[in-house]
Amino acid sequence: GEHALIHSAGGGVGTAALQLARHAGAGAVIGTASAAKLERIRDRELPLDVGIDYRAGPFRDAVLAATGGGGVDVILDTVGAPYWEDNVACLAILGRLVLVGVMGGAAAEVDLRALMGKRATVVGTVLRARPLAEKAALTVAFRTRFLPAFEPAGVAGPPGSAPALVPVVDRTFPLAEAAAAHRYVEENRAFGKVVLEVD
Question: What's the per-residue H, E or C state across the chain?
Answer without folding.
Answer: CCCEEECCCCEHHHHHHHHHHHHCCCCCEEEEECHHHHHHHHHCCCCCCEEEEHHHCCCHHHHHHHCCCCCEEEEEECCEHHHHHHHHHHEEEEEEEEECCCCCECCCCCCHHHHHHHCCEEEECCCCCCCHHHHHHHHHHHHHHHHHHHCCCCCCCCCCCCCCCCCCEEEEEEHHHHHHHHHHHHCCCCCEEEEEECC
